[in-house]
């Protein structure tokens, strides 16, 4: 069995990817400091797949501890680096925390990969690297814009750190995956997104409002230059996203070298109001909302051209939106129990 190390594997996208990797026959080692997750997600992975991933509770910014884990798992054939802090607003308040955690962590992971000759890295990048795009949909060739937050900067800089490291070390191959807006949960309802405190992101805010945990969803702005005036995003099912990581690894393991970059989205944009309505229709749950002023820093509209991943990785996001919304709701209801 080929071994894959996933940093941040106890988190939202990492836990779904752990399931997808195990279901594809990989042996999974999770490294996570549990700063934004708990081992309950690994219990969920174990219930779904019948196998509990090996868990190493380590902070990627601690090079000695990380080295010792890599030493024990030096037979790994690849690393998926999810571990990062991701709250955009918090990153504006605490930039050094974000630069240290996200960039020191990445540098340490790359250092260990070179030391132990682990040849493939998949990196969690983000559509945030495109800033406010002037042409839609965005392709991988769309020029990157200055990031609007320290969080976004860590993705732009992270991509560059990986590019330079691969250039200097051709034994290393890398895939940069630029996620659009991941939503939903595993169909079993056993794993999902577990935000700490008040959610920043739309989907968990919708499900928590429907569950009565929040009194009202605030919709930020109805005066954008979009068809219905609301912001438009490309919402991608987290299970489709997880499958893309498996496809990316398999592509590298078949011999692809150098750096590949892929947008991971559905290729279709939905406005905030369309998403709220689709959620209510798919689940029958009511989402009280009020329209308030725009949120500072929001991009009016962005969606992906993800056709490169279709052509090269033979991957596409094909879960119907209604299924994704039902899974998000199922997970939310399980969280209350
Ligand atoms: P998450 O917070 O659920 O998962 C991240 C995991 O990394 C958590 O389990 C956390 O405990 C762990 N972690 C953080 N810093 C660590 C460190 N120094 N050492 C070890 N573990 C550490 O977030 P997610 O939504 O699953 O995001 C995964 C990755 O995808 C992140 O890199 C994020 O920036 C990126 N991303 C997420 C989104 C999104 O909307 N969710 C969009 C684009 C990109
Ligand atoms: C989506 C839409 C909001 C909450 C962020 C990061 C990005 C990436 C994904 C990691 C927007 C609206 C939201 C609410 C609302 N993360 N909204 N009421 O801003 O597209 O992207 O998460 O890389 O980097 O910036 O996602 O879910 O916060 O917002 O009306 O309570 O929902 O205005 O139009 P966003 P989001």
N- to C-terminal distance = 36 Å
Order of strands in the sheet with the most strands?
Answer: 3-2-1-4-5-6-11
The major sheet is characterized as: 7 strands, parallel
Mean pLDDT: 97
Low-confidence stretches: none
List all distinct small molecules, including ions and cofactors, that are bound in this structure.
nicotinamide-adenine-dinucleotide, UDP-4-deoxy-4-formamido-beta-L-arabinopyranose
* Shape, principal axes of CA atoms: globular
Proportion of helical residues: 40-55%
Question: Order of helices and strands, N to C?
Answer: EHEHEHEHHEHEEHEEEHEEHEHH
The total strand number stands at: 13
Please report the number of helical segments: 11
Work out the radius of gyration: 19 Å
Strand content: 15-25%
Structural class assignment = alpha/beta
Q: In a few lines, what is going on in this structure?
A:
This protein is α/β, with parallel strands linked by helices.
What does this entry look like structurally?
Helices cover 41% and strands 17% of the residues. The strands form four sheets. Strands 3-2-1-4-5-6-11 form a seven-stranded parallel beta sheet, with helices on both faces. A two-stranded parallel ribbon has the order 7-10. A two-stranded parallel ribbon has the order 8-13. It is globular. The longest helix has 21 residues, at 95-115. Helix 1 (12-23) packs across helix 8 and helix 9 packs across helix 11. Helix 6 links the parallel strand 5 (120-126) and strand 6. It starts with a strand and ends with a helix. The mean pLDDT is 97. By secondary structure, it is of the alpha/beta class. It contains eleven helices and 13 strands. Nicotinamide-adenine-dinucleotide (NAD) binds at residues 7-8, 10-14, 32-37, 59-61, 82-86, 101, 105, 124, 126, 179, 181-182.
């Amino acid at each position: 069995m080929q071994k894959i190390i996933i940093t941040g594997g106890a988190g939202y996208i990492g836990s779904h990817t752990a399931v997808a990797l195990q279901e594809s026959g990989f042996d999974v080692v999770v490294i996570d400091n549990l700063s934004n997750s708990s081992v309950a997600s690994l219990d969920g992975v174990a219930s779904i797949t019948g196998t509990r991933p090996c868990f190493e509770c380590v902070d990627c910014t601690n090079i000695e501890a990380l080295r010792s884990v890599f030493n024990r798992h030096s037979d790994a054939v690849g690393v998926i680096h999810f571990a990062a802090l991701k709250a955009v607003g918090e990153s504006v308040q605490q930039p050094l925390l974000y630069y240290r955690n996200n960039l020191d962590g990445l540098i340490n992971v790359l250092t260990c990969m070179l030391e132990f000759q682990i040849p493939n890295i998949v990196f969690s990048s983000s559509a945030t690297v495109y800033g406010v795009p002037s042409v839609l949909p965005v392709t991988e060739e769309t020029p990157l814009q200055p990031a609007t937050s320290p969080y976004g900067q860590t993705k732009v800089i992270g991509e560059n750190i990986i590019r330079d490291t691969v250039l200097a070390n051709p034994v290393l191959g890398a895939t940069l995956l630029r996620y659009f807006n991941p939503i939903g949960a595993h169909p079993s309802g056993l794993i999902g997104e577990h935000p700490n405190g008040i959610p920043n992101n739309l989907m968990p805010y919708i499900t928590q409002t429907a569950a009565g945990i929040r009194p009202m969803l605030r919709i930020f702005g109805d005066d954008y230059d979009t068809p219905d005036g609301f912001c438009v995003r490309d919402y991608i099912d987290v299970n489709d996203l997880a499958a893309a990581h498996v496809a990316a690894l398999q592509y590298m393991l078949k011999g692809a070298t150098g750096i590949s970059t892929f947008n991971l989205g559905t290729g279709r944009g939905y406005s905030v109001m369309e998403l709220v309505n689709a959620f209510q229709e798919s689940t029958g749950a009511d989402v009280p909302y009020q329209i308030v002023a725009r949120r500072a820093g929001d991009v009016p509209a962005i969606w992906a051209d993800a056709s490169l991943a279709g052509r090269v990785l033979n991957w596409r996001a094909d879960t119907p939106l209604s299924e994704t919304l039902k899974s998000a709701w199922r997970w939310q209801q399980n969280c209350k129990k």
